[in-house]
Specification:
single chain; 462 residues; alpha/beta; Rossmann fold; 2 domains; 6-stranded parallel sheet; 19 strands; globular
Length: 462
């Protein structure tokens, strides 16, 4: 039987370029697919951050990562925007990228069974395959899977820019590209792809509703039979307390006392009270309403007055910078506020915290809860998207569950979950049994990769 051939197309890929979780997926999923026998290749733009010489590099054992080069479009410091906002030529840039992906397939003599497209930046690939390349025998057996990582980012452009795509004006129509008199790339990708997936089963259901569909719920309902939700995984080579070089002291489920050495050393580093028995809440986030920053801001005084500590790492809306800077001054022994991005500090926070806030209004998948599990840190989350799929309410009577949750997007509901978590924290034997259970959970990429292979095969047979 011939090996399944997959080309994963993404605008960012770890370790070459990253702004968010898409890059992690695009860099990790291929590794797991390769291990399962798939002939997988990856393609991305060659940004200024890509230091590899030539027009390809390799990851894993022998996965080729092709680079699409264009000095004018991609040799820039940032990927999609600068301090003044989105790049004005983003439509030109990613229409070019999508066309070049198909040209590169032909140049390499690689006719994929499936082109796995990701987010709006590659949404034109299914469109071009069904228009410009519709009768090209090279792609006769190529199918497309379009994965939504976040419905909020759809690739919207002024109507006047439609000719840049290189297609007939007839496609600027309510059934294809047109969206409130604008060009919507994601919409076209949804319409033209052979199947659509998103990054958790719950988010796949949520985006069919007005609350989460961001105006495209009607289009998604027409594709409901071809819509699937597959959880992301995490790379346990990267996220492992046993061998993480960034944390202060490695530990495992059999040496948990060393987790609390990490906690004391982080307390010292952050200048807060050194006491391993004080419950420490960590939070690593973009400071925005979507991430529930306002919920935490509303309850933080009450939390810190309950003899708890709070360690925050992140940047975002200026109003939250002001709020949390005031908190740091008001509670110097209990609150550490780092308004920046720092990869080393992030891993120290995962390793040292007892609990971890993820109170998002919506969260397509979320990786922080999976990382927290691995480091024996208990998540406190809102039940939405991938958080709902991975974090089940802990029941002290049965000892079952994986964290503390709330449903209604309200700060009082978050505070209720916090109070319950602190009650359980006081019962040390119960708490330690929960921590040990979390560290044994498996959210590696292997299970997710198997689901993707099943979906690829389903698409190929369509």
């Amino acid at each position: 039987m011939a090996r399944l051939k997959v080309l994963l197309a993404s605008s960012e890929v770890v370790p070459f370029a990253k702004t968010g979780g898409l890059a992690d997926v695009a860099g990790s999923l291929p590794l797991a697919l390769e291990e399962l026998g798939v002939d997988v290749r990856v393609i991305m733009p060659k940004y200024a951050s890509v230091k590899a010489a030539g027009d390809f590099a390799k990851i894993g054992k022998s996965i080729k990562v092709y680079f699409v080069e264009n000095e004018d479009y991609f040799n820039r410091k940032e990927l999609y925007a600068d301090l003044f906002g989105d790049y004005k030529d983003n439509l030109d840039r990613f229409a070019f990228f999508s066309r070049e992906i198909l040209a590169r397939c032909k140049k390499e003599g690689f006719a994929p069974d499936v082109i796995h497209c990701n987010d709006w930046q590659t949404a034109l690939i299914p469109v071009y395959l069904n228009t410009i390349y519709k009768y090209d025998p090279f792609f006769a057996n190529t199918r497309t899977l379009y994965t939504i990582h976040n419905m909020a980012y759809q690739g919207l452009f002024p109507k006047e820019e439609f000719p840049k795509i290189g297609l007939d004006w007839a496609l600027f129509h309510i059934d294809y590209f047109e969206f409130y008199d604008k060009v919507n790339l994601m919409k076209a990708g949804l319409v033209y792809s052979d199947a659509v997936s998103t990054v958790s089963p719950t988010y796949a259901k949520e985006i069919l509703t007005r609350e989460f569909g961001c105006g495209l719920e009607g289009v998604l309902k027409t594709r409901e039979n071809a819509l699937f939700g597959i959880l992301n995984g995490i790379d346990y080579n990267l996220w492992s307390p046993e061998k993480d070089a960034k944390i202060l002291k490695n530990y495992s489920v059999d040496s948990l006392q060393d987790k609390y050495l990490n906690k004391e050393m982080l307390q010292k580093e952050m200048g807060i009270k050194i006491d391993r028995n004080i419950p420490m809440f960590g939070m690593i986030t973009r400071l925005a309403e979507q991430k529930g920053a306002d919920f935490v801001a509303d309850i933080i005084d009450r939390l810190l007055n309950m003899k708890a500590q709070f360690v925050l790492l992140g940047t975002g809306d200026i109003k939250y910078h002001v709020i949390f800077e005031k908190i740091a001054k008001k509670y110097p022994a209990s609150a550490s506020i780092s308004l920046k991005f720092d990869a080393v500090l992030a891993q120290k926070i995962y390793a040292s915290s007892d609990l971890f806030f993820i109170p998002s209004r919506y969260e397509p998948c979320g990786l922080s809860q999976m990382i927290s599990f691995r480091y024996g840190t208990v998540p406190v989350v809102r039940q939405t998207g991938g958080l709902k799929d991975t974090v089940q309410e802990f029941d002290p009577r049965t000892g079952k569950g994986t964290g503390f949750t709330f449903i209604e997007p309200k700060s009082e509901e978050l505070f209720r979950a916090v109070k319950k978590s602190l009650m359980v924290y006081k019962d040390k034997p119960l708490w330690m049994s929960l921590v040990k259970y979390l560290m044994g959970l498996d959210y590696s990429w292997e299970a997710s990769a198997k689901e993707y292979i099943n979906l690829y095969n389903r698409v190929v047979k369509k």
